[in-house]
Amino acid sequence: MSRSPHATAILLVFIAALFGAPLLLPEFYVTLLNYIGLYAIVALGLVLLTGVGGMTSFGQAAFVGLGAYTSAYLTTVHGVSPWLTLPAGLLVTGIVALSLGLITLRLSGHFLPLGTIAWGMALYYLFGNLAALGGHTGISGIPPLQFFELELKSGREFYYLIWAVLLLIILATRNLLDSREGRAIRALKGGSLMAEAMGVNTPRLKIVIFTLAALYASMSGWLYAHLQRFVNPTPFSLTQGIEYLFMAVVGGVAHVWGAILGAGLITVLKQWLQDWLPTLLGRSGNFEMIVFGLLMIFVLHRARDGVWPIIQRLVPQRERRGRSVEALALPRRPLPAAGSVVLEVKDASKRFGGVVANDRMSFRVRAGEVMALIGPNGAGKSTMFDGISGVDPLTSGAVSFRGERIESLPARDIARRGMSRTFQHVRLLPGMSVIENVAIGTHLRGSKSFVAAACRTDRAEEARLLQEAALQIERCGLAEQMYELAGSLPLGKQRLVEIARALAADPCLLLLDEPAAGLRYLEKQALAELLRRLRAEGIAILLVEHDMDFVMGLADRVVVMEFGQKLAAGLPEEIQRNPAVVEAYLGGVE
Amino acid sequence: MDLQIALLLGQDGITNGAIYALLALALVLVFAVTRVIFIPQGEFVAFGALTLAGLQAGRLPGTIWLLLALGSMIALIEGSLALRTRQFRRLPMILLVNCGVPLMLAGVLFALSPASLPLPLQVLLALMLVVPLGPMIYRLAYQPIAEASVLALLIVSVAVHVTLIGIGLFFFGAEGSRTLPFTDMSFEVGDALLQGQTVLVVVASLVLIVALYFFFERTIYGKALRATAMNRTGARLMGISGTLAGMLSFTLAAAIGAFSGILISPITTIYYDSGFLIGLKGFVGAIIGGLASYPVAAAGAVLVGLLESFSSFWASAFKEVIVFTAIIPVLIWRSWKTRHVEEE
């Protein structure tokens, strides 16, 4: 993610303004900025969780509370140094978030937010009722933070700490999202099935970002406790948790900077509304929530991406072009000897309730051959692909891949063994560039993880992965479109992107589901040429395709399916003459 | 704990549980039909109770202003749509339904003195003031983004919830209210005293549940809702409008919510924000049913009621903590049962 000179200039002005603010502004505004910073840290976690990961939480305030209360309790009761209570708070929050994540994240999407409401309430009542935590009166007399001799007693001094932490977390989050794991995280929203087929462990990623968001919240809580030097349960209630989500959504839930913007907008608006509404309505109460609620409904109806993208459009963006540095090529997987059996499917059946989509299918695919699976629509070809690749496991039967039984493995483990596939209904991430989409295919060829990505020590590996992705894109004839958004390509080209992504995984078996659909004649020829070259390299290819000229000119062997069963198998010429096949395709003569 | 206390707690638990069960049913219904997780369900409980309390105290309930405001907004939206598409013949109907009916209700409120009406009429009036808010809120907040993700709809739900809480505070104030009991009868069962109102709550809940069963099994609208819940696209192809199904399910949910509020307000003091906690406990019940099964959701809700009343005896400070953490074992159990990666 490189930025235009304009954007860099704006960022520098912003940081300079941040630095100068406490020197120039009166106390009131410094306090306001402190709170905006604290809220933005929490909202940033929600950006990661909701905008990027497609999950959500109303319970972030409770995690803020965990951080704040851990530090408050340890410093006041046990006299522990605040610098030690930070890791302690993070640890407590991490353990709670991890266990809650393990419980809920495997369930369908709406159980998580409902769960967060429930434990948001539970933790709030727990803070208020535990005598050790001071009950509803809370804990006071929390010591200030101390840098050697300097005590951070005033809001002005604390300001620098809050904003330094916020900017650091923003930087780390941006780095993380622009990395191998980051691409996988961005695939969670709307592409988890595809990501699994590319070897991504999506449940693990979900738990990681849920925990990360909770840790951000806990960090904010620690800062809050030592800024206020007093904690009580009120700021950790569900209402505050809901407000955090509003901040993220109003600011721009898919954008890192949206967190600051949203925290700023909501905090200032709240301040302003709390001054004016009681006078306007003639009584006191939290009436600003009426306005916030209506504002949220409006945002979700009219500008679901929040305010940040609207601002972003005002600044000209520059796209990155061209390959940066020449990186070391990635190591290739040793391919099985040409002619050896790579895939063996035996008596594979798949039932959906009473419908038998695959009925005792058996066939083999050898290294260095193109095998075509053909048949009329609804014959069960794509179901067969889903069964082989583990995307939707078989009901019964055996699948051996390179001599190993795989029918009960999850898709990601099958991908790890060297099988890669494309999808009939294209599964790209439309908001990401072509090269980023293809780079998801390289997921299993890298190993650098979250911490390395956040600290940018993954750059050498990242360059190798991107170079590999670029190589496969060029191979599929898409060099021109490398930096365009995948969603902006015509369908035929999107299918080629799918092939490039599958190739980026360095497979020894490639499953292609209707790769030629939507391609023009010349593009089809180029595709056939590419597949011939892959075959010559020793890759096994299993192909589902309706274009008979394409199939018959390319395939070494053909299996014909009808009504879930194998109708015929043999060489292309034999199949073309087979009366049963002719009847299945053209109908019999009455 | 002796038997008498146990009976008392059990009675309390089952009464609350019956209310939670009604709410759980409404939540499952709304979720199945519209994919909306109906967080504002609880606000209908509070609005129902407080509107009735207002009527009985001779105050003009603020709900009427909300009804007028939402009605006018819908009339404005629908009206301008009809004008743009040149369907002038729809205009009188739009105005009548959305502005006429609320105005008529306002007229009734001003003309009669509701405080002197008999109780059944007061209840009817309160329901007529609160229930139309359900479909109106659906039309304004949910229907424009009916196809959005469950997540977006959930965030809208939370937004509607906080808006209604704020409006509730404005209309009804911070102090709580109780309504007059429906009956003063009480029965002696062994050593314990059984309140007539308590029996009424349980019986009314059961009657309502049976009525819902017949609605879904026997009427064409009930069947349409079930069809939509099973397969939205399929139902639409069969001519069942998604908007109609949404409005209908919200009407039912609002009616169930308001009626629950009216049922319990003689037993418990209801504040403007009490509904949320009551609704959430219905949720815990509904989650036990996996947001899908009606009988399991109802049973789960009764369990929540019992858990609540018994934990208020043993550890009253941690009552809410216990009720809300009860969701965790349920989630663990459901998590074990789920196997595959889902695509949203």
Topology:
The complex is a heterodimer of chains A (590) and B (344).
Chain A: H1 5-24, H2 27-52, H3 60-77, H4 82-104, H5 111-129, E1 139-140, E2 145-147, E3 150-152, H6 155-177, H7 180-197, H8 202-228, E4 230-231, H9 238-252, H10 256-281, H11 288-302, H12 308-312, E5 341-352, E6 355-366, E7 370-374, H13 381-389, E8 396-401, E9 404-405, H14 411-416, E10 419-421, H15 434-440, H16 450-454, H17 459-475, H18 491-504, E11 509-513, H19 521-537, E12 540-544, H20 548-554, E13 557-562, E14 565-570, H21 572-577, H22 579-586
Chain B: H1 3-34, H2 41-56, H3 63-84, H4 91-111, H5 119-130, H6 133-142, H7 150-172, E1 186-189, E2 192-195, H8 196-218, H9 220-230, H10 232-237, H11 242-264, H12 274-288, H13 294-314, H14 319-325, H15 327-337
Antiparallel strand pairs in B: 1-2
Helix pairs in contact in B: 1-8, 1-9, 1-11, 1-12, 1-13, 2-5, 2-7, 2-11, 2-12, 3-4, 3-6, 5-11, 6-11, 8-9, 8-11, 9-11, 12-13, 13-14
Can you offer a commentary on this structure?
The complex is a heterodimer of chains A (590) and B (344). Chain A has helices spanning 5-24, 27-52, 60-77, 82-104, 111-129, 155-177, 180-197, 202-228, 238-252, 256-281, 288-302, 308-312, 381-389, 411-416, 434-440, 450-454, 459-475, 491-504, 521-537, 548-554, 572-577, 579-586; strands at residues 139-140, 145-147, 150-152, 230-231, 341-352, 355-366, 370-374, 396-401, 404-405, 419-421, 509-513, 540-544, 557-562, 565-570. Chain A has 590 residues and is an alpha/beta fold. Chain A has a 6-stranded mixed sheet with strand order 10-11-12-7-13-14, sandwiched between helices. The termini of chain B are far apart. In chain B, strand 1 and strand 2 (192-195) form a beta hairpin. Mean pLDDT of chain B is 86; it is low at 340-344. A two-stranded antiparallel sheet of chain B has the order 1-2. Classes of the chains: A alpha/beta (590), B mainly alpha (344). At the A-B interface, helix 4, helix 5, helix 7, helix 9 and helix 11 of A face helix 7, helix 12, helix 14 and helix 15 of B.
